Amino acid sequence: MAVTIKSAREIELMREAGRILEKVHEEMEKAVRPGISTKDIDLLGEELIRSFGCIPSFLGYNGYPASICVSVNDEVVHGIPDKHHIIQEGDIVSLDAGVIYKGYQSDAARTHAVGEISQEARQLIDVTKQSFFEGIKYARAGHHLHEISAAIADYAESFGYGVVRDLVGHGIGKEMHEDPQIPNFRQKRRGILLQPGMTLAIEPMINAGRYDVAWLDDDWTVVTDDGSLSAHYENTVLITDGDPEIFTLSK
Ligand code: MF3
Ligand code: CO
């Protein structure tokens, strides 16, 4: 499938899908406290998404059984919410969510600290977030896609972290996953030329240890192979004539 260029109307709908998802994340963050189950976070997220008249895009996607991915500590992404999994002080909790508004999608992820966390965990969360901002310095018309990948990787790897290779970012629009794929690690090719109207979900997944990951027997949950902590940060971004517009981060 070719990379699509969104029309002004499509951009406006995706902007609204992004604004809504930003609010959903803000509300979910407040709920991430010791004692809450990962299932309760999912139920809250679904309720919030529906309260804005949106559809949770993850629910039923390839059979995924929930609306929010809740990935704790060494879980990288796609953690399945479970009423028996109770969040503890010191955990780091990655929340990934997507909404569909009038047929258009947004996708964003954040990693939150629960109470007091280790210095190591704090740095991992901060570097993962900053790696996204290093990447989007190149999310501009006239640059090539893999300049984003290289900037994310160079920044994260300078801290000795492992940049996950088995999962990548993606184009987004009517579908959650559109072309192009957006790796977070250095590529041999320079990738497509970025053009105004492209909408991209850029999502570094960074491990404190090695980059290798494994899948649990639930066929969804991705964990670090070496048991190290992992963080995730994702926004839905529009390429413009100037600075990129981050639909899921208006402030
Ligand atoms: N946000 C994820 C991504 O960027 C998708 C979650 S997979 C799902 O690819 F099954 F939960 F939808
Ligand atoms: Co995504």
Summarize the structure.
The protein is of the alpha+beta class and 251 residues long. 27% of the residues lie in helices and 25% in strands.
Protein model, in words:
Helices cover 27% and strands 25% of the residues. The protein is of the alpha+beta class and 251 residues long. The protein has a single domain, classed as Creatine Amidinohydrolase. It has a 5-stranded antiparallel sheet. The mean pLDDT is 98. It binds 2-amino-4-trifluoromethylsulfanyl-butyric acid (MF3) and cobalt (II) ion (CO). Residues 107, 170, 201, 203, 234 line the site of cobalt (II) ion.
Task: Note the main attributes of this structure.
27% helix, binds 2-amino-4-trifluoromethylsulfanyl-butyric acid, binds cobalt (II) ion, 15 strands, five-stranded antiparallel β-sheet, alpha+beta, 251 residues, four-stranded antiparallel β-sheet, globular, Creatine Amidinohydrolase, 4 helices
